[in-house]
Structures
1.
Amino acid sequence: MKLRASIAVALLAGGSLLAAGTVVAAEKSDKNKVSEKVAKIMKPAQDSYNAKKYNDALTKVHEAESIPDKTPFDQFTIAEFGCAAGVGAQNYAEAAKYCEAKLNSSFMPEAEVPSLVRNLISLNYATKNYDKAIEFAQRAVKAGYASEDNKNLLAQAYYLKNDWKDTFRIEDQLVDQEIKAGQTPKEQQLSLLLSACVKMEDNGCQQHALERMVSYYPKPEHWEALLFSVRQAVTGNDAVTLQTYRLMNDVDVLKNPQDYNEMANLAIEAGSPGEAQKVLQKGFDKNVFTDPNIKARNQRLLETARKNAANDQATLAKTEREADAAQTGAKNFGVGVAYLGYGQYDKAVDAMQKGITKGGLRNDAEAHLMLGIAQLKAGRKDDAVKSFKSVKGDPQLEKLANLWVLHARQA
């Protein structure tokens, strides 16, 4: 996870807050007047600052700082110039020191506090003083004037201190706020969330972060990472494993030869030899099977799938009539699954809907998931989303259905 210091540096552009004051202005109150010995040095500092000779201005600030018996207003003026000149010279360590001294002065204008605190977040982050960056960011958040960039720097500072829990807490809250406001979270924010979850070795947290990643940045590598995580969690459950493979195949992140082989075997067992044939052929077309022994094994499986598909298609019309005459919908649904495997999506939808309406199915959640897949393949996206959202009762299938909704909306 690469964190950008450029955010912090960009926030340090000069504004009224970082502009050095005028040391020769007359003051009504003696306590708000620069002493003559300090003014003598600070006037050249001001001239250098105005000429954008920031290092020269900073040198004069150091000279003024060494003067003994300075008044509190002298110290405030020196801090103000040091803050501005340090930023101008890109000497952020010096700038942070003087800006904090300015902030802590009794002469600090209250109206300028929010801007100065925000700049102190950036200055300390840029100099890798993460404890101070966190201190000022927390102050800004508590007071209600922290910007989104300030909050992002807070999360990044926690990350760089190896505080993964607080990194996730802060960034996830910020992402939630952005989503509720109709904004799109930045990919870097979601990467930070994911990296914190990985560091915590929290699988649930990783899936949460990856789901958000594919929601807004549906790149193949993000889908692959998410579905690999889901696949690892469903080992031993053949029905859910096959459903996971179906989504992996549809978003084109099925890559492992073993996964192609297992999906094909599970599809044959589930009564979808056409699906098995297609996925194996896809594997051969992509040159997935490079090992000679593995290639030969899958070639034999492909021939088995072709033979089963040919036999199945020869009797499918008869099976459909028998299904229509049956009291329950299990056979109708099985016909729908077969049609789906052969790419006859409208027929698949009709048969599955008959099966669901008649009832008596082994798993209603899986049935609605399969109906959604068939509807999506048939180009009926809105219907598919409704079907996916109706998947209830099985947490693993519900999770897959939610991912199908994301995929459907991106299709």
Note: The mean pLDDT is 91.
2.
Amino acid sequence: MTLREAAEQRERATLSPRTAFSDAATRARDETPCAVRTAFQRDRDRIIHCEAFRRLKHKTQVFLSPRGDHYRTRLTHTLEVSQIARTIAGALLLNENLTEAIALGHDLGHTPFGHAGERALGEVMPGGFRHYEQSRRVCEVLEKDGAGLNLTRETLEGIVRHTHGAQASTLEGRIVRLSDKIAYINHDIEDAIIAGVLTEEDIPKALRDALGRTKSVRINTLVRSCIQSSVADIALAPGIQAPFEELHAFMFSHVYTNPVCKSEEGKAVALLQRLWTYFCEYPDLLPSGYIRIAETEGTQRAVCDYIAGMTDRYAVTLFNDLFVPKDWGVF
């Protein structure tokens, strides 16, 4: 018996019957099973080692180009989601490896400059742009020079359904959807406090009384509520769900649309849309891999993939190289 088979047997013996079991996972392309890792462990490893995952460290979460070292990036957000989701999955005797794979892959397709970048591409790309759909495209099409990662269908479905539309069919995918929201609301509060645009005392007292007066207490409250209330589905207790939604509305009005926080977003949108126009006009200047996409799926699809995959600093550097005059001459 291989180590993988032993792990699959332990899943069957110890996990909830509602879990997504590794030995039932399927892929678009069949492949020889690993002797050591389960299918979902393999998914996790492929995501961690892919190029798009590494680029997350230089992509904005909420605050564009912050000068401090302690603001979240898209990568640190992803790691926080993963930890919260694994904690919930483990407590509910669900598949932690599938949960982790979905969490680590959920934002692979996110644009530079956070949701400002998503809005920029959404305004110019025919049919719009949604980062969760782009995350799936990264996994299926863009990674490994067009071969994709060949992730399991369970992981891919959890990734593409982590934020909008229909819920994932697996409870693990539904855990990630809730964990994403738990993570970003609470760490965005902390980042906003660091930025000086919010204090804990600004949060309405009723919400602090219901959820907690610090980030760690609030996360603990939400995680415990999910563990205790998830019987037929993944859910929070009604007495926690309502203030949690109110806290999200508070963050939307005080941080996510705050003119101080969003003062640079217009520049980011203009920058990306200028790059869009330029490469749509000169697709032969795209990197070779994207030229192949332009030849098979069209120029706009290729330009969208190229821009969506950029980090903040790469986009700025490229813009400067293309459009900002350089110094000339001898002093």
Note: The chain has one domain: 3-17+35-256.
